[in-house]
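Page 47, continued from p. 46.
Same chain as before, 340 aa.
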Amino acid sequence: MKMRIHRSVIAGSMLLGCLLCLSPGHAQTTTGSLPASISIFKENIIHFSPDDSAKYDTDRVVCREGGRVITRTVELPPFTPPVRITAHVVLAPIPKDELEVYDRWDRAGNVRLEIPGGPDVELVKFITAYGGRTEYDVDLSPLAPLLRGRCVFKGFVDTWVSPAWKMDFSLTIAPDTQAVNPDWVMPVMYSESVTRDGIGDKGIEIPVDIPTGVHRVLLHYYVSGHCTDGADADEFVQKDNVIRVDNIVVHRYRPWRDDCRQFRPINPYCRRWTDGSWSCDYSRSGWCPGDIVAPLELDLTDHLTPGKHTLRFVIENIRPKDANGNYGYWRVSAQLLGWK
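Result:
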């Protein structure tokens, strides 16, 4: 099915600039002044083939991690803020024949920016539909200081088949006096598997240094809970996420989505259980099959004054590994945004 979904979310930004990015490259852009249109990925194949991850490489797009990550280095055009930057993402399953696709499952994925010496910055976080096509528009205006010059983009889908999905990813950049462009951003963390065995109850601790002159600080926290066997915790059981600054709890909440029923029409391979329920309808820890995962936005201005601080992220009671080797895990990333 080809129903389009358009959901907007403000992502993080940082003053680290694309001078940190590696390797030259060129994207297809409009000429002259803004607005500009940049095509970065166009029907590029994401797959899993550890013995031949490069079999779908092109002259501009290179596969990594067994084919599940595609990368491209592009040269983005110069601009003078304020600007509005909009990302357009299309995910389409690759058909096997008239009735089947190669990957009919819901898969975690994202588009992110590679930062040498630091964690990747998640631009768009999503879960694919059950073998269905999805399409998203995402406002990346707060990333304007970063999205210029040479940048390395990554497209990721956590698939285990080959071939699996095709991805489109493009940016439009246009002048806009209403766009939000922070002065400073710090990438805090990026992890695809936060587990009980990995961090236990202590959580993830990150030192941060707020620059002099920054008077307002926001945290963007992307999080989704999963399990290796598709049952129980941490996908279908609510768990507290606790955020501390300098060992003081500043926020406690349970990431949860209970509106997944609305996405059933774009989940063509979702199946009905004997009790009459549909897998794609179930409430989950911060996500729905076929939709983006929006960040928690938390104002930390009163806690993160200029100077050195410590952030700690704790996910309580993560399901430990059982006798069959199954366990709960979380995909998380975060950025700090600051204004002078």
